[in-house]
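Tokens for chain A. Residues wanted.
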């Protein structure tokens, strides 16, 4: 399974971090070590999906009944806790070009008893699904950096999502892998689109399967 392989890869990263990876494969009990670390990481993930991720979005201001876009959702590390917060009256649109990731997201959602997540492949499909209704919240978490988008492409994406967000709606960004100049340009672009920085929130986030203490930038759409 993808998730099992991913966790195993993270185990190697964790061992490197702990400085105990050298010579690990010479130990007859290495499989037991890996199993222990994998189990610990799985417990952390479940804690995130059911508790800490939920707390993040409550503090962010998500409410029951909200329509949320998780752009570049992957396997749902943010979609699933967001769906818990908005409840059955709300909906989370998990958008990703990777069909395997979307399939994994929907499988995990079903296993969690969450039926308010909709898998979406692109913005055009989302536009059709919304049928003129605005989004309350857009999540752009660890996705709009230069690994995936040129500056022009990023501007185009921001124009598109800002056009789908309601007045007083929220655009929350986790600008991982973005330097100060890129963040300044992003802020300038959003200001031109009548979205203004409301607050910078330092908090626990999830990155590559592990907790990280970082910050989100939260913009409010306030037409002049």
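Reply:
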């Amino acid at each position: 399974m993808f998730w099992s392989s991913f966790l195993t890869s993270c185990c190697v990263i964790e061992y490197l971090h702990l400085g105990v990876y050298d010579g690990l494969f010479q130990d007859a009990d290495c499989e037991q070590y890996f199993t222990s670390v994998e189990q610990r990481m799985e417990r952390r993930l479940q804690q995130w999906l059911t508790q800490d991720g939920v707390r993040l979005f409550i503090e962010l201001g998500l409410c029951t009944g909200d329509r949320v876009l998780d752009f570049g959702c992957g396997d749902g590390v943010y979609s699933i806790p967001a769906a818990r917060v908005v409840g059955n009256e709300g909906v989370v649109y998990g958008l990703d070009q990777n069909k395997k990731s979307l399939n994994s997201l929907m499988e995990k959602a079903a296993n969690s008893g969450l039926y308010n997540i909709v898998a979406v492949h692109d913005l055009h499909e989302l536009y059709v699904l919304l049928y003129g209704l605005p989004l309350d919240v857009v999540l752009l978490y660890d996705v709009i950096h230069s690994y995936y988008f040129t500056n022009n492409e990023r501007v185009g994406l921001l124009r598109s999502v800002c056009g789908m967000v309601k007045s007083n709606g929220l655009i929350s960004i986790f600008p991982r892998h973005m330097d100060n100049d890129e963040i300044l340009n992003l802020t300038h672009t959003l200001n031109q689109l009548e979205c203004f920085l409301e607050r910078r929130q330092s908090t626990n986030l999830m990155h590559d399967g592990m907790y990280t203490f970082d910050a989100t930038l939260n913009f409010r759409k306030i037409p002049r």
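The CA atoms of residues 57 and 82 lie 6 Å apart. The mean pLDDT is 88.
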